[in-house]
Amino acid sequence: MPRLRSLSLPLLLVLIGTALAAPAGASASQGQTTHFEAGSTLLDSRVQAKDFSQMEALGVKALRIELSWASVVPSAGSATKPAFDATNPASYNWALYAPVIQRAQILHWPVLVTVTSPVPRWATSNKKAPYVTRPDQRDFKEFMTAAAREFGSQVSVWSIWNEPNHPAFLMPQWSSNGKPASPRVYRGLYQSGYEGLVAGGLSHPKVLFGETAPTGFDTVNRKREGARALLHDVSPLAFLREALCLNAHYGRAGSCSKLQMSGYAHHAYTKAVNPHWVSTKRDDVTIGSLSRLSRALDLAAAKHAIPSHLPIYLTEFGVQSFPNRELGVSVAKQAEYDAIAEHIAWSNSRVAAFSQYLLKDDPLGGRPGSSVAGGSVGFQTGLEYLSGRPKPLFAAWPLPLTVSRSHGGYSLWGLVRPATGSTKVTVLVQRKGSHAWRVLKTISTNSRGYWALSSHTAGVAWRVRWKSPQGKSYEGPPVHAY
Q1: How far apart are CA 117 and CA 114, in angstroms?
Q2: Residue 299 CB contacts under 8 Å (≥ 6 apart), including other chains
Q3: Would you put residue 86 in left (φ > 0), alpha (ψ -120 to 50) or beta?
Q4: What does the pLDDT look like over 278-333, one tens digit per residue?
Q5: Which terminus has fewer CB within 10 Å in the chain: N or C?
Q6: ∠321-324-330 over CA atoms, to 5°?
Q7: Comparing C-alpha atoms, which of 204, 91, 81 is closest to residue 138?
Q8: Domains contained in the chain, CATH given
């Protein structure tokens, strides 16, 4: 989603007695990675050590970093490209990113790097701010060659471009006739970037395609809206089809070659509603409608546009909370909705990765879309307020918990994120009419920290407690049944 700038597989449990516990069963989603993206704060050397310490305690085990092309290149603000060897990593200033990637390596955290805009002024077609218009493909290939040579062995997964279906990151989004333009621009960038990684010494790079924003339009009407129409997002599935040279029915629409990729990246943000919500716009993909994306990928693979059975990487996600009045929910619901969304992702065997966007909230910005007009859009998806004060999500994220009404009882699902193997977690329940919490069950997790529990014990709220082998105590906030 726009940065600060000037959205299940059933739990197959046998109900025996009042409460039956069972570690989470085998599933393709058991290998799912959860990336954590702390945001720009992680690039600040003054707070970097503190941020890493917090993330370790929270149970972070993988990192996502957005690498801005313009932030490392020489003479980024010049309209004329300087004379330098653009394939040589020594030509760039990697100081913002190298310490973060090195620290992740020490902690044995896999790193996902999304290379994205803004781009050098000299690499744009119009040389105008915000420097996202038709980036030069040859320049981008040379830059990716240098990036591969600098970080190749330290990066587990590369992803090319952040939300290329959004005008804050890539332009033009639309042609003058109201048809999507950004998908073909992106396809060229992706191909050039992939070639650059190979040229940089990565013979079989793991690269993600897409990285799309969740909502948008299939067509726009410039006659009705004027130039403003050209600043709308392209809906993710319309973007996917056009980028892969497919028509609205997923038939071939051109002679494009098959693209090599290791997965499709998507940002399945949703509105201020229960994550199971599904948009009526069929080409939007929020966390509650992931089947739309998997179906689209299967249809594209059937036309030999992409590899078959492509995994989905949800590389950026978060639930907005108040004080965001446009897309936010209460901080209590934020904690509950975030866990529900993770459960949706975990329950989908096609999803290879989930994510959390932001450790600390952004400053409150303008309305959605403000970034396109030069304003700012702040995200309140953090575990902490802007002040650094923790939200309920700070306690909930290490111990996500969902409670679902099922067969006259309740199905509980959870994760002990900081655990490094099987452990025991205590589940507590608050009965109706009581303020006291009592132990419902102490349950063993599987080797990855997941657990499930089926119960007929009626309650109004549930929470979990866990103590690490080092003696650190964790307790999640109260969670209600949905």
Answers
A1: 10
A2: 246, 250
A3: alpha
A4: 999 999 999 999 999 999 999 999 999 999 999 999 999 999 999 999 999 999 99
A5: C
A6: 35
A7: 81
A8: 28-399 (3.20.20.80)
